[in-house]
Every structure is written in C-alpha cells, then in structure tokens.
Specification:
Layout lengths: L12 E4 L3 E5 L4 E7 L4 E9 L6 E7 L2 H11 L11
Antiparallel strand pairs: 1-2, 2-3, 3-4, 4-5
Length: about 80
C-alpha cells in the first residue's frame, strides 16, 4: 500500500465580522479576537491558559488590527523561542 500524498495546508488568513475575527488555515483554528465594549480581546488558539481551561489570551487592545497582530505573533514558531533551520 502506497502512502497518501501530503496535503498542502493553505496559508493562514483572517475571516472578519463586526464582532469576531478568526485566524485560521485550512486545517486549524489558530486564534481569534472578540470585540468588547472598550476594545478587542485577543485569544491564541494554539495554547491554553495557565490553568489549561481555555485559549491563552495575549491581551486586550484598542484596535482590531493590534489584537490581530498579537494573535499572529503568538501563533508563529518564533514566539515560542524555537529555532527554525
């Protein structure tokens, strides 16, 4: 039996709505940002919080753009101190 060919994973991109923006690729939910009364709350979908109960929140931001940047930074290999060769 021959191995299945590898599937290509589509590049991550944002899907936006007025209240929630989701960062995803073709296989994974990487993170999301949620609108609050005062701004945007970012969530890293690739790691749990300190208690292992929910997504790790990188923080609160005044703009969706800043929150999205935090999610993208939190979900790259470089944000974990890993070396990519």
């Amino acid at each position: 039996m021959s191995p299945k060919p590898a599937r290509e994973v589509a590049a991550a991109s944002w899907r936006d709505s007025p209240q929630v923006c989701v960062y995803t690729d073709s296989e994974r939910h990487l993170g999301h940002v949620v609108r609050s009364r005062e701004g945007w709350i970012a969530f890293d979908g690739t790691h749990t919080d300190a208690f292992g109960n929910t997504f790790r929140p990188p923080g609160f931001f005044l703009s969706a753009a800043a929150a999205k940047e935090a999610v993208e930074s939190a979900t790259t290999p470089f944000s974990f101190g890993q070396t990519v060769i």
